[in-house]
Design brief:
This protein is mainly β and 582 residues long. Helices cover 9% and strands 46% of the residues.
């Protein structure tokens, strides 16, 4: 058989394999116990049932990262575990390698799921050009960086104070304070630079500062200064252009000679790829952090639209998605709406995803076929038993205020119960066309359901614009479906019982003896309040505290679980609260 015929047969085999290829897409179902993720086909039918706590897209290698029992693993398209859930997290594959993190540190996995690093590291980055930056701490607690190859071996020793990803066989590393070098894939030093700061290597250009508090300029790889320091911030050169910002935090776009293509007069400037940029204009110049509108421009500075978009995604194959106060839709490279493609009420993104179009709109995932027909969206009704159910309702009076709140069907005194749930969820009078000082997003889960008791977990996140971070909100409603009663903590116990002291002492012992609570601030825990926030789970009472109350913000809501058998002597076993779920 000729080589030509063999190549033709191979090509036909490849095309046939593509025609038989089944694409799978992650989708979430709300259920008792919270949301569960599975994978649907292009018709919207579940192929892998919703049982995961998290499910990411399948990558080109046919593998996907999932979470089960609060641990992370990897599955193939048949749902078989390539890596059983045992890691805290797994970072997606890059060049056939994924980074997994457990209690020991960072490790590299190959596509068979095997750990190929001989030890754990304090940090491992993505693989680029066959190298991944890795770091461990020295005796002084400082990070030292080097590089691993795709076999997981250290090919460039961990000796640098910082290290960038490789680009065209070169990477920028920091040798020590005031000393940087450009190295090749073997670690050989190509050029060295004596400046307090060198950064943003890209397309043969490096940003630098001549003094600790000086401005930034650009030099070439040899160290020749091409653009004198004049910027307060820089980004790497991409497609012969770089985004810079100047005094008053205004952003512009320069060429390799430092000439402005887009003058620095915008509150933000985003590279959307494919020679397109989003220009941001603050609606309140005195408070630019509040809200921006975006216009579309090209790499030559031509502006195609007014400042009409609240957000724009990156371009792919000549198409991006954008949204305004009302809708999310596709736009072409001139920023014009593509009316023949799907558009959705709400804010978010739309993107072509293999054989479907994926929408991430107002914190919900949807899928459309290429004709724009809706294939799948998340359920809004969670059945309980008999005539009882929980229905999801949406409240979005303002672009910066979004709440999904629960309403109960079949419950006694439905109007009173559901009005209370609205108020707990944050449904309130919010001005429609007024710029708010903060954004708020709220949602809920059915965290527990047994007999006549349903427990609704109400979550929220309030972010004041310009703040370092927002504040999370967590509330629990314990509702008796037969009576419509909202139970309080004290109703679980006998009237004469000093439940505050008993629970306070148990939690005090947990903090003292259990290492998992070592994050609690010393001497801050003084016991619980009579109306301490709580929730019921299977076989246990859970007591929690607000962020900052007894622990740092990063600890979230410190939660202490107490089995009911440890409280048996003070529980009112004949009380209506206990009997509602027993």
């Amino acid at each position: 058989m000729s080589r030509r015929n063999t190549e033709q047969e191979n090509w036909i085999t490849y095309l046939l394999s593509l025609s038989r290829m089944v694409y799978l897409f992650p989708a979430e179902v709300k259920d008792i116990g919270g949301g569960k993720w599975g994978y649907i086909n292009e018709k919207g039918a579940f192929v892998l049932p919703p049982k995961y706590e998290m499910a990411r897209d399948f990558q080109e290698n046919g593998l996907a990262i999932i979470q089960l029992n609060n641990l992370t693993g990897i599955i193939n398209t048949d749902g078989y575990f390539i890596v059983k859930p045992k890691y805290e997290t797994i970072i997606p594959f890059s060049e056939g390698r994924a980074t997994a993190i457990d209690h020991e540190g960072f490790k590299v996995l190959d596509e068979s799921g095997k750990e190929i690093t001989s030890k754990a590291y304090s940090f491992i980055g993505d693989f680029q050009e066959g190298r991944a930056a890795a770091a461990n701490t020295n005796e002084q607690g400082n990070y030292l960086y080097g590089y691993l190859n795709r076999r997981g071996n250290e090919v460039i020793p961990l000796s640098f104070e910082s290290a960038s990803d490789f680009e065209h066989g070169k990477a920028l590393v920091k040798i020590k304070e005031g000393s940087y070098s450009l190295i090749d894939l073997t670690g050989k030093v190509l050029h060295s630079y004596s400046f307090p700061f060198v950064d943003d290597y890209g397309e043969g250009m490096l940003a630098f500062r001549k003094s600790n508090d000086g401005k930034w300029g650009y030099m070439d790889e040899s160290g020749k200064v091409l653009i004198e320091p004049q910027f307060i911030g820089t980004q790497p050169f991409v497609e012969h252009r770089a985004i810079v910002n100047v005094e008053n935090n205004h952003y512009g776009l320069i060429d390799r000679q430092g000439k402005y293509i887009i003058k620095p007069q915008y509150s933000s400037l985003l590279n959307l790829g494919e020679n397109r940029y989003a220009l941001g204009k603050a609606q309140d110049p005195e408070r630019p952090y509040l809200f921006q509108k975006y216009a579309i421009a090209d790499a030559d500075g031509h502006i195609y639209t007014g400042f009409i978009y609240n957000g724009v995604s990156e371009y792919k194959d000549g198409v991006a998605s954008a949204y305004n106060d009302e809708m999310t839709f596709f736009i072409d490279k001139r920023g014009q709406r593509l009316n023949h493609l799907p558009m959705m009420q709400g804010g978010g993104t739309l993107a072509f995803n293999k054989s479907l179009i994926k929408g991430d709109i107002d914190l919900r995932i949807l899928y459309f076929d290429k004709k724009g027909t809706l294939v799948w969206k998340q359920n809004t009704i969670i059945p309980l038993k008999e005539d009882y159910s929980v229905t999801e309702n949406k409240f979005k009076p303002n672009k910066d205020y979004l709440v999904y709140y629960p309403q109960l069907t079949g419950v006694s005194s439905p109007e009173s119960v559901n009005q209370t749930l609205k108020e707990l969820s944050g449904v309130k009078a919010v001005p429609q066309h007024t710029q708010l000082e903060s954004s708020y997003a709220g949602d809920f889960d059915v965290s527990f359901y047994k007999n006549n008791l349903v427990v609704l977990e109400i979550n929220g996140y309030d972010y004041p614009f310009g703040a370092a971070h927002g504040m999370p909100v967590k509330k629990y409603a314990h509702i008796d479906l037969k009576t419509g009663r909202f139970y309080q903590l004290k109703e679980l116990f006998k009237q004469e019982a000093d439940y505050v002291k008993v629970i306070s002492d148990i939690i005090g012992e947990q903090i003292k003896n259990d290492e998992q609570y070592s994050y609690v601030f010393p001497d801050t825990y003084k016991g619980i309040k009579a109306d301490q926030p709580f929730f019921i789970s299977e076989g246990a009472l859970n007591i929690y505290f607000e962020p900052y109350e007894i622990a740092p913000y990063a600890a979230g809501f410190p939660t202490f679980t107490i089995p009911f058998h440890d409280l048996s002597s003070i529980i009112d076993h004949d009380g209506v609260f206990w009997r509602s779920f027993h």
